[in-house]
Design goal:
Aminopeptidase, eight-stranded mixed beta sheet, 8 helices, 8 strands, single chain, alpha+beta
Length: 208
C-alpha cells in the first residue's frame, strides 16, 4: 500500500530496533518505555511472529529500512500476554531481569500489566472479542503528513478482512491529543478505568 512518498508494509522482526526507538520517543514516561530499548526491541521482534498479533510499518520507498512510523495490534490481549509469558519468556527474561535489578519498582508495575486484559473490557461485552490497537508511533520529524491516519486505516481494513467487528484502544485520560486523533478516525469513548494509578480511557471503533 502506498500513499505519496510513504509505503505501508507488514510489521516485521527486522523493524524491531527502530520500532523500540520510536516507541520511546512517542510515549515518554510510560511503563513500557521505562523497560528500555532492549526489552522493547525483544517485544517488537516477537509480535510479528505471534499468531495473536499483527501490524504495519510506514517506510520511505527510497529508504525501506528506516521506519517512518508503525502500528501494532492484537486479536486477543490475554492470549498474546499468555504467549509472551510462556513460549516467548526465554527471550524476555534476560533483559527484564537486568532492568528489574536496576529498578525494582518496575516489577510491581509489570504485575499490574499482567492484569490488564481483565481490566479494560467494555460493560455488556458478550460477542466476539474486539482486537486491540497496542501502539502507534510516528517519527517526530514526519508528523503532520498523515502517516498516523494511513496506519490506522490499514489496521482497520485488516481487521475487517479478518472479520473482526471492533477495534479497541486505551488512551491516557490526560492525553487530549490522542483522544482527538482516535475520535477523528471512528473511535468513540466507552469508559474509564485505572492502571498504574492513572485514569485511562477505553475507545472503540465499530467495524461491522
Amino acid at each position: 500500500m502506498t500513499g505519496g512518498q510513504v509505503t505501508l508494509t507488514a510489521l516485521l522482526p527486522e523493524h524491531a530496533a527502530d520500532a523500540a526507538r520510536l516507541h520511546i520517543l512517542g510515549q515518554p514516561g510510560t511503563f513500557l518505555t521505562s523497560l528500555g530499548p532492549e526489552v522493547l526491541t525483544v517485544l517488537y521482534r516477537m509480535l510479528p511472529a505471534s499468531a495473536h498479533a499483527f501490524g504495519f510499518a510506514a517506510v520511505d520507498p527510497q529508504r525501506p529500512a528506516a521506519l517512518l512510523g508503525f502500528v501494532s495490534a492484537t486479536t486477543s490481549t490475554g492470549a498474546l500476554f499468555a504467549e509472551l509469558g510462556t513460549r516467548r519468556i526465554r527471550a524476555f527474561l534476560p533483559p527484564l531481569v537486568r532492568r528489574f535489578a536496576r529498578n525494582p519498582a518496575l516489577a510491581g508495575r509489570a504485575a499490574q500489566t499482567a492484569l490488564y486484559p481483565f481490566m479494560h473490557g467494555a460493560p455488556g461485552d458478550d460477542g466476539p472479542s474486539p482486537a486491540e490497537l497496542l501502539s502507534i508511533m510516528v517519527e517526530p520529524a514526519q508528523r503532520g503528513r498523515g502517516i498516523g491516519a494511513l496506519l490506522v486505516a490499514a489496521l482497520q481494513a485488516e481487521c475487517r478482512r479478518r472479520a473482526i467487528a471492533a477495534l479497541d484502544v486505551t488512551v491516557d485520560a490526560a492525553n487530549a491529543g490522542a483522544q482527538r486523533f482516535y475520535g477523528t478516525h471512528g473511535f468513540t469513548f466507552v469508559r474509564t478505568f485505572t492502571l498504574y494509578g492513572r485514569e485511562m480511557c477505553l475507545y472503540r471503533a465499530r467495524l461491522d
